[in-house]
Design brief:
Layout (H helix, E strand, L loop, with lengths): L1 E10 L9 E11 L5 E7 L2 E7 L6 E9 L1 H10 L6 E10 L2 E9 L6 E6 L13 E4 L8 H6 L10
């Protein structure tokens, strides 16, 4: 069993971009029920299926398995709710941790979120200068919510 503990932040500057190398992601949801969420994802040239429990604070159960790329592609096209989540994920090392910055495209264009996974809820982190407001507890920023209520429809409220 995997437990994901992460914090999410909005980005306030482009200073993270210089060392970052991105991977294109496309993902969709087979179900976005409160529990569980079932996601299909293509990351670069690999396919995955992921099951996640409801979030409790900063953590939730997460089970992810690699699947054939052709299967992931067919599920995204035929089985997943639209719109799909399109983004480029960048990884930036800072303060001994790897930060994942998601720059969204498509219906969520204009949104950039930084996430950092932690070992425990109490873990102290050094925030990079490019990190802005924390949105960890705001469900609007969950990818499953962005698939149902894209950023373009509420961008003035961010």
């Amino acid at each position: 069993m995997g437990i994901e503990i992460e914090r999410k932040f909005l980005i306030k500057s482009d200073e993270w971009r210089q060392p970052a190398i991105g991977t294109r992601y496309c993902q969709g949801y087979l179900t976005t029920a409160v529990e569980p969420t079932v996601r299909v994802r293509i990351a670069g040239d690999r396919g995955f299926i992921t099951v996640k429990s409801a979030t409790a604070g900063m953590s939730r159960l997460e089970f992810e398995y690699e699947i054939p790329l052709a299967d992931a592609d067919l599920m995204l096209v035929r089985l997943c709710a639209k719109p799909l989540i399109e983004k480029t994920r960048y990884r930036v090392d800072h303060g001994g941790l790897t930060w994942e910055i998601d720059e969204f495209a498509g219906e969520n264009a204009g949104l950039i979120i930084a996430e950092v996974e932690l070992e425990s809820h109490e873990q102290q982190i050094e925030l990079p200068v490019w990190v802005g407001r924390e949105v960890t507890g705001d469900p609007r920023y969950y990818n499953a919510c962005l698939a149902k209520n894209p950023f373009k429809s509420w961008a003035g409220e961010a």
